[in-house]
Input
Amino acid sequence: MSKSKSDETVTAFPDHDVIVPRKNLKSFAQKVSADESEFDWEAIERAEAALNELSPEFDGWMVSECDRLEAARKLLTAGGLSKGTTQVLFRAAHDIKGEGATFGFPLAARIADSLCRLVFHTPKPAALPLDLIDSHVAAIRAVVRENVRGDDDPIACEVADHLRALTDSFLRDQHRDDPEWLAEYGTPSIVPE
Amino acid sequence: MYRIEFNRLRFLVIDDNAHMRRIVRTLLHGYGAREVYEAEDGAAGLEAFTSYTPDIVITDWAMPIFDGLELTSMIRQPGANANPYVPIIMLTGHSEKRRVIEARDSGVTEFLCKPISARALYQRILNVVVNPRPFIKTKTFFGPDRRRNVNPNYVGPERRKGGKAEVIKAQPLLEKLRAPT
Output
């Protein structure tokens, strides 16, 4: 049975309600051609051009993200290995993972992904291997310093692969008595590259 | 093709990273948006949501104070604010399947994995504007319908009682095995 309130129509079922809000955003879109799946490429190109205009800022932003990551690493020594200090490191690495490719450094993003995995999946902060964290931080800094653009630089790729292998090996050892973790995260991804 | 009137839409971008906020704002202005508001964490985001009543929220996941998931849950409280139905696009570096499901179950409308691109963000916005989904309310969930379509090939028990999908009968596995291929 459907009931209409002022701003929604509610259809009740035994264990759930289906609610259709009156207000939606359809009035903000105009159909201009029959092919509904086609994108408004002009709008997308305008946005790409705007991002391109912003891109001279990206190198400076990437350097400041590296500074932030190094500061977060230093905090682990100064403040000790706690949930709070490792969270600061995780967020700094996570931001590089998300932004690195946009800023032109996809390999820095890949190494940051490995660092995020290391920090997130290590069961206790006290068990975090500082030397492996340092290697990640140094590698990210080196990719930016050496201006390694793109994702096919052979040396940087080898470093990224090696750090990921070390991370995976460390985590498998940390979770050796946790079959659930090993089943979900301890095997290679089935997602095609 | 649909043309979105970005100049009439009001956006709220919530991200603790100022660089990412600037990138999203740049893309939105590039599409033609005029009203883009920003907040730098979940708490400020909730306040801005109440003050600006945006048409679309774009939020990061990992943020201090409370994160994008908690923010989504707070917005999706029926009766707690002016618009619990607002489309929420989660823009995040998290890409694991478990995370996508967690975001969906908290009431997120669209999920967009970083690195961001002009096309991917446009596609998510187009989807929330042109294809709004009904909301489902159960004892444990309130958010956009997690079923984006009815799968005609689905066989199995119907988990919602009384819905249209209940007419789909589960084909016993034994029958399926016996059926000629």
Q: What stands out?
A: Residues 95 and 143 of chain B are 21 Å apart (CA to CA). Chain B touches chain A through 55 residues (CB under 8 Å). Chain B has six helices and eight strands.
